Amino acid sequence: MMTKKERINKFCGIFDRPSFHNIITAEFKDWLLDHGFFDAPASATHHGNYEGGLFDHSLAVAFELARYTNCMQIRWQRPESPFIVGMFHDLCKIDEYKRNDPKVILTGDDVWVKSDDSILKGHGDKSVMLLSRFITLTEEEIFCIRFHMGAYQTEDWNSYGKAIEKYQTVLFTHTADMYASRVKGV
Sign of torsion, CA 116 118 121 126? Predict the structure, then answer.
């Protein structure tokens, strides 16, 4: 398991490359640090339910998307999209969980609980809203992040189907998310 410093170094190793200079700003990096992106869990009781799990899960999804892109020669509207979508698809979780009781050292599934402090609700929608404050997203990136839950978010099957028909990357984003969380367990 990585330390916070190792997570930040890994993030900088990806996003400090020249192709990202006009996309990932210093202001956004500071916001991620200030809002706990490198400390937050990915869930309370499932994959990545540990400190730093959100970053670890997001990194795994980004690498899966990059792998699919290379292996299947997938074309994105923007070449950096696999990393943007993968790293920030779950940005909504940045304030989603809190420690059950910060004064007590807990282990297992009782460490994290859902927070009532979050003002914005939703999953993919919230991630798009938060990310749009810092990055001008392509339509494809918006759809990939919005619908990354796939079949687990079934209130609008028609729109999900249309999004896949317009951008096959929507389906690959969901697949990368499922692979990272269900197969790799991160």
Answer: negative
Query: Within 10 A of 16 (CB to CB), how many other CB atoms are there?
Result: 12
Instruction: Dig out the tokens for 14 from the structure.
Output: 């990806």
Single-letter code of the amino acid located at 8: I
Q: What is the mean pLDDT of the chain?
A: 89
**Nearest-5° angle of CA 171, CA 87, CA 147?**
30
Whole-angstrom Cα distance, residue 182 to residue 186?
8
Compute and round to an integer the Cα radius of gyration of the chain: 16
Residue 153 region, left (φ>0) first, then alpha (ψ -120 to 50), else beta? beta
Rounded distance between C-alpha atoms, residue 113 and residue 64, angstroms? 28
- pLDDT tens digits along 104-131: 555 555 666 666 666 666 778 999 999 9
Q: Which residue, among 143, 132, 159, has the nearest Cα to 77 in the 3D structure?
A: 143
Please report the sign of the dihedral spanned by the C-alpha atoms of residue 81, residue 129, residue 43, residue 140: negative
Write down the pTM of the prediction.
0.89
- At 37-61, the pLDDT tens digits run 999 999 878 888 899 999 999 999 9
